[in-house]
Amino acid sequence: ADELRLCDYSIGPGSKLNLVVKPPEKASPEEPGHRGSLPPFPSIWHSLAQVLARHFSPADTQKVLEQLQKDYERSLRLLSLDDIERLATRLLHPEVADAVEMGFLD
């Protein structure tokens, strides 16, 4: 893990990359805020549950919320390294990302 981007390395066509995914460190049960396998930003899920509760029964609210969480986690798992790099570039350098999207740097 360093500050370099993928394009900073001399990775050519046909190169093989090894990706190592470390399991998340398990939090101790005494650790505050630890709630099992909830996704990050629990306040977002809590707020979303409140909005859903206005429109659905409690059982349906729970089902919809669980499906949204599964879809969210699946979307994150499917991100490629290039996707993550593009997202990071857009977040860290919005002026460059805007120019690229408008075709000025192509």
From TrEMBL:
A cellular-component GO term for this protein: BAT3 complex
Name used for this protein in its record: Ubiquitin like 4A
InterPro entries: Ubl4_C_TUGS, UBL4A-like
Keywords: Cytoplasm
Region (Disordered), start-end ranges: 20-39
GO MF term list: protein-folding chaperone binding
Top-rank taxon, per record: Eukaryota
PANTHER family: UBIQUITIN-LIKE PROTEIN 4A
Subcellular location: Cytoplasm
Ubl4 C-terminal TUGS domain segment(s): 45-91
Pfam families: Tugs (PF17840)
TM spans (from-to): none
Gene Ontology biological-process annotations: post-translational protein targeting to endoplasmic reticulum membrane; regulation of protein stability; tail-anchored membrane protein insertion into ER membrane; ubiquitin-dependent protein catabolic process
Start-end of Basic and acidic residues biased regions: 23-34
